[in-house]
From TrEMBL:
UniProt keywords, alphabetically: ATP-binding, Nucleotide-binding, Transferase, Ubl conjugation pathway
Name listed for the protein in its UniProt record: E2 ubiquitin-conjugating enzyme
CDD domains in the cross-refs: UBCc_UBE2N
Organism this protein belongs to: Australozyma saopauloensis
Claim: Transferase is one of the keywords in the record: yes
């Protein structure tokens, strides 16, 4: 396996030494380009109290191209589809090598706090969101409790 670029090593060290509140990103021991990520839902959002698992992978041409990020936890959100793919400009057309893993994760956390049904990836969810926002938010809360709330069962 090729040595990791200095940039990835630096970013990884910063994620560990200076973590972002509500976000953890841990590199896999088998592949240092693969991160297990958790993002806590923003407190003022339907995803509050939820802890979402994601995977983040840095392709060989990172930072010239965006990391691949996807939700592993089921989520009801107009910009995240059933496969966990995320519709976010900085992961696509607005990617810039100046961005870092932490800025991407912060953008994803912000997206949880501000769903955008006008630029959907999950069209059915976006339609629900636009036709009955209160019901869509209730469904998002329900899914968060069902799939994203860490179990407090200590057995």
């Amino acid at each position: 396996m090729a040595a990791l670029p200095k940039r990835i090593i630096k970013e990884t060290q910063r994620l560990v030494s200076d973590p972002v509140p509500g976000i953890t990103a841990t590199p896999s021991e088998e592949n240092l380009r693969y991160f297990q990520v958790t993002i806590d839902g923003p407190s003022s959002s339907p995803y509050a109290k939820g802890r979402f698992d994601l995977e983040l992978f840095l392709p060989d041409d990172y930072p010239m191209c965006a990391p691949k990020v996807r939700f592993l936890t089921k989520i009801y959100h107009p910009n995240i589809d059933k496969l966990g793919r995320i519709c976010l400009d900085v992961l696509k057309d607005n990617w810039s090598p100046a961005l870092q893993i932490r800025t991407i994760l912060l953008s994803i956390q912000a997206l949880l706090g501000a769903p955008n049904p006008d630029d959907p990836l999950a069209n059915d969810v976006a339609v629900d969101w636009k036709s009955d926002e209160a019901k869509a938010i209730a469904t998002a809360k329900e899914w968060t409790e069902k799939y994203a709330v860490p179990s407090t069962d200590s057995s």
